[in-house]
Design goal:
Rossmann fold, metal-binding (chains A, B), homodimer, six-stranded parallel β-sheet, Histidinol_DH_CS (chains A, B), zinc ion binding (chains A, B), alpha/beta, five-stranded parallel β-sheet
């Protein structure tokens, strides 16, 4: 097992090496784009027939036999079948996620200003939303909760889940989470074809307005291509963590934190910043030891060797501009007093403060959303929230007097822009 | 001049005809997509050299001669050169837009819950934003204000404007608006190549994090393709207005309102809902009369004939579900009491209430943003706001006691999901 990249910020070649790390793209290739375009066209043209054929191809089952929808009873039975420990864990998670997201509900405004103009804005939920839930390795009940609960908190009336069921097999944990989260429909379709069905609609599956949820490269590309036909959450890339840690941490703890991202996928990335060479070595050793005993060791080991990095800085605060350039999905500040760093860092999806806040606690039960911007997109985008399932309508009302006060400026500007009908529509009302 | 589509909701064929109207796509074709892909690749590979060559091709001037940037002094001179009437109109607009958008600034949260978990979220501005301003017919100073002011209100430190200057000619109104809005850099580049420069950066133009602003089909497609490399505002299609009007309106007023969208572009769409056939006829006549005298009559006439519609309903409230299906960019409720309709309508970008609120007053001086979702996207997206230039970072802090309280549920869920390093990173801290 080769080790990860080791960089020292005092090295004269550091700037170039760090830029290479920042700009390394771990996203999927162009072939996917062509495949997805073809699948979207096919579903749009052939509807349910395309879904049935593609499901037979990819998931090896016949939807007319296994059933297109998972009946509500099966979700309820899955919930009843959970062990008491797991059921209370999911319920705690659901409650905490709901509580956190309730605070995100936006406030409407409606007021009249000094000119007599009434103006404001009003938020409302989209009519219908779709949540994609992967099958196979990444079939996570936590992901169901994190996508479905904000939609329901927003007030979405029709919440549709799509999920592939390879060879017809459902995942009871996912179904139980759907039941707890209040999902209204569960369809046994996955891949780019499921995203197409949600966006365009088919005879069976009515279209939705917003599609969220993680997926493989085909699913992500389908969402990207359908952006504008439907709303989507940010296009997701491989998961990432940056840990800023001093030498007073237990190296085993930090190693586990780095591996909690690395175990997701070989393309995941874990980066440690520290100010102590000996501590860096201890963490590197601990990572290798843990990889050897983890059931997910092979994936984690590949991720760590290919994409991991340990970066030595003279002072932990020196990591600040470097972290901002990485704009990581997850940032752990494993120091006694994280406040000075926290106050200054600008770009990160979510920040985990102090030695007792491993990133994984945020993945499940803390409350904030675990759907977060990856691939440096925390520079400009945010984690999933209630707002992703709502839209804002602005409004305006002039009295005759208010229009007389602000209308002439509109007439002047419309004239200057060469838009006479704009000018006329205001001017014609000014004499009344 | 042929008239617009006339529909009567009581006609048995109405449902099909209305569905055709709703689903008619007035968006650009697939050739544009290939052209844009090639331009983006070229700018990414060749940087400024590609910008210079494409500008010579499309805009017919040599950037090394005319200058890449418009100097600040030229913007200041443009502002000084405005007529007093126009200057005070732009300043009134800027002030009102700033006031409205200041209210959109989001509030951070930071609290500790009963379990002892500190959690919250913090909003911050993106570092840099780019605003596209079209040249030629659609070079609108109001558009500069509507895009640039929200960015500055958000706190964006570096605000870059790109705008084509055909044959080197700048538009003084646009430059004056840039000066008033606080734009930091103005570059003489346009088209898909300008969007590529903003997203990827070149030697001269540093990259930005968010790109907004209207443009032709190439610009819109470039934004769509670069979504994810940068943040963008919603992909914009042709402008639209729906007017709901009773017979007590002056037909000339309503005609002017319909034409204020139609004059933008032949692909624009204006739709009238009314409950009175005679009134519908009067509006149709007034529209044709106004088209004959408007300087923009040719464009407006084509738009009205090709995309316009007058829809008769038995009761104006019957228009409600039809308007929601159209989810128009602009909705005017030209009735004495708009409240019952306003209370129930779900999908519209912006709503103009009552007889004295022509849509054009919102285009310029009212305060709310005129960058609004088109093409039925008001079902899931919102007008441009301060939030488009900001992002939210969530954060979390556990004490040892708080982690003992919620951590075991995270361990249980991580175990159930088959992610042992996630479980370990929490479990390893529970004994301390």
């Amino acid at each position: 097992m080769s080790g990860p990249l080791r960089l020292d910020a005092s090295d004269p070649r550091f700037a170039d090496a760090f830029t290479t790390l920042v700009e390394a793209r771990r996203e999927s290739d162009d072939d996917v784009s062509r495949d997805v375009t073809a699948i979207l066209k096919r579903v749009r043209a052939e509807g349910d027939a395309a879904l049935a054929a593609l499901t037979l191809d990819f998931d090896k089952h016949d939807l007319d036999t296994t059933g297109w929808r998972v009946p509500r009873e099966e979700c309820q039975a899955a919930l009843e079948g959970l062990s008491p420990e797991l059921r209370s864990a999911i319920e705690l998670a659901a409650t905490r996620i709901r509580t956190f997201h309730l605070k995100q509900k936006p406030v409407d405004s409606d007021s009249t200003d000094d000119a007599g103009v009434r103006l404001g804005s009003r938020w409302s939920a989209v009519d219908a939303a779709g949540v994609y839930v992967p099958g196979g390795r990444a079939a996570y009940p936590s992901s169901v909760l994190m996508n479905a609960i904000p939609a329901k908190v927003a007030g979405v009336e029709r919440l549709v889940m799509v999920t592939p069921t390879p060879r017809g097999e459902t995942n009871p944990l996912v179904l139980a989470a759907a039941e707890i989260a209040g999902v209204d429909e569960v369809w046994r379709v996955g891949g780019a074809q499921a995203i197409a069905a949600l966006a365009y609609g088919t005879d069976r599956i009515k279209p939705v307005d917003v599609v969220t949820g993680p997926g493989n490269a085909w699913v992500a590309e389908a969402k990207r291509q359908l952006y504008g036909v439907v709303g989507i959450d940010m296009v997701a890339g491989p998961s990432e963590i940056v840990v800023v840690a001093d030498a007073d941490n237990d190296p085993e703890w930090i190693a586990a934190d780095l591996l909690s991202q690395a175990e997701h996928d070989p393309t995941s990335q874990s980066i440690l910043f520290t100010d102590d060479t000996a501590f860096a070595d201890k963490v590197a050793d601990a990572v290798l030891r843990q990889i050897n005993v983890l059931a997910t060791g092979e994936t984690a080991g590949t991720s760590w060797a290919d994409n991991g990095a340990i970066i030595l800085v003279a002072d932990l605060m020196d990591a600040l501009p470097l972290v901002d350039r990485l704009a990581p999905e997850h940032l752990e500040l494993a120091v006694a007093d994280p406040e000075p760093f926290f106050a200054k860092v600008r770009h990160a999806g979510s920040i985990f403060l102090g030695r007792y806040t491993p990133e994984a606690v945020g993945d499940y039960v803390a409350g904030p959303n675990h759907v977060l911007p990856t691939g440096r997109r925390a520079r400009f985008s945010s984690g999933l929230s209630v707002l992703d399932f709502m839209k804002r309508t602005s409004f305006l009302q002039c009295t005759p007097a208010a229009l007389r006060q602000i209308g002439p400026a509109a007439v002047a500007l419309a004239g200057a822009e060469g838009l006479p009908a704009h000018a006329l529509s205001v001017a014609i009302r000014l004499d009344h």
